[in-house]
Amino acid sequence: MVVVVIDGSTILSFVNDEARFKKSVDEAFVSLDLNNDGVLSRSELRRETESLRLIEAHFGVDAPTPAEDLAKLHDTVFDKFDCDKSGAVDKEEFMNEIRNILVAIAEGLGFCPVQMALEDEDHVSFLKQAADFEAFKGYK
Ligand SMILES: [Ca+2]
């Protein structure tokens, strides 16, 4: 478990650094695309929605959610990513939606820093990367 302190501006400066953001998204995409077909299926994307805590962040759910409701939430998230309704999420759709989500989280946080606890196994945690990005900015 790592605890990061993050606010809206931390996330926005990460998202707005086009090269850095694209690199992170590319890495996440490759690690999620288990069968290497260049698109994310429903089950592949589900690993990301779980690690990003989209469900909690978007819907404010912190109590255990019944499996059936959770499945519905995951479907909703998938449909948001899958802009052209092709049944799979390509890299551009993935990047656009991750950006939308991070900007929405940033707007929700505003300029009030919050502590966020992240699991170590969140190998593709964009929020952690945003926090690291902020921490190392001064050393460039
Ligand atoms: Ca795939």
Short description:
The chain has helices spanning 8-16, 18-32, 42-52, 54-59, 67-81, 91-109, 126-136, and strands spanning 2-6, 114-118. The protein has 140 residues and is mainly alpha-helical. It has a two-stranded antiparallel ribbon.
Structural commentary:
The chain is mainly alpha-helical and 140 residues long. It contains seven helices and two strands; from the N terminus they run βααααααβα. Strands 1-2 form a two-stranded antiparallel ribbon. The chain is globular and about 35 Å long. The mean pLDDT is 82. Calcium ion (CA) is lined by residues 33, 35, 37, 39-41, 44. InterPro entries: EF-hand-dom_pair (IPR011992), EF_Hand_1_Ca_BS (IPR018247), EF_hand_dom (IPR002048). GO terms for molecular function: calcium ion binding. Keywords: Calcium. This is Calcium-binding EF-hand family protein.
User: Which ligands, by name, code or SMILES, are bound?
Assistant: calcium ion
Rounded mean pLDDT is 82
Helix-strand makeup class: mainly alpha
In angstroms, what is the radius of gyration? 15 Å
Note the overall shape: globular
How would you classify the quaternary structure?
Answer: single chain
Helix content: 55-70%
Which segments are poorly predicted (pLDDT under 50) over 5 or more consecutive residues?
Answer: none
Summarize the helix and strand pattern as letters. Answer: EHHHHHHEH
Strand content: 5-15%
Task: Tell me the number of strands.
Answer: 2
